[in-house]
Amino acid sequence: MTKRKQGGHAGFTLIEVLLVIGIITILAAIVIIAINPAFQFAQSRNAQRWSNTNTILNAIHQYSVVHKGNIPSTITTTATEICQNGVGGCSGLIDLGVLTQDEQYLVSLPIDPHCTSGYFCDDNGIHYTVRRTINNRITVEAPHAELSETISVSR
């Protein structure tokens, strides 16, 4: 049998435990700040907006190919918000229902990712705009992009 030395430690002192907890807390705070979840979520929503604008533009392009170069007649030369499918009261908005009719070009028009969580969504729009030039060049934009990003696609 071995004898313990007089005054030896059998465990940790309160100060040592508090010091370890403090160091772990500081490291966790640094990791959370480095990851920055709000920034990551904003980037994710912007990636979805890029995808949605391309989807809308591709559907308009497919429509124009099938209709011998003609684009939907509701698209104007002024950037105007696009109306949601199947809702009334789309006055002042661009109706692209021809793209979703019989699900020929799209099943439904994509909606801005913030609309699913209640932001910016107090009307009947999808929060993407569309316009054409006099030469029928189409531009679809996401005006509610985050992180000062400009999301605009043209064809």
Helical residue percent band: 25-40%
The tally of strands reads 4
One letter per element, helices H and strands E, the order comes to HHEHEEE
Structural class: alpha+beta
Rounded to the nearest angstrom, the distance between the terminal CA atoms is 87 Å
Global shape: elongated
What is Rg?
28 Å
Strand order of the largest sheet: 1-2-3-4
- Mean pLDDT value: 89
**Low-confidence region ranges:** none
Q: Please report which band the strand proportion falls in: under 5%, 5-15%, 15-25%, 25-35%, 35-45% or over 45%.
A: 5-15%
Count of DSSP-assigned helices: 3
Oligomer, anyone? single chain
| Sheet with most strands | 4 strands, antiparallel
Question: Please, could you describe this protein's structure?
Answer:
This protein has one domain (37-154). Helices cover 36% and strands 14% of the residues. The chain is built from three helices and four strands, in the order ααβαβββ. It has helices at residues 14-35, 37-66, 97-100, and strands at 80-83, 125-132, 138-142, 151-154. The model has no long low-confidence stretch (mean pLDDT 89).
What is the topological layout?
Elements: H1 14-35, H2 37-66, E1 80-83, H3 97-100, E2 125-132, E3 138-142, E4 151-154
Antiparallel strand pairs: 1-2, 2-3, 3-4
Features:
alpha+beta; elongated; 155 residues
Describe the structure in brief.
This protein is an alpha+beta fold and 155 residues long. 36% of the residues lie in helices and 14% in strands.
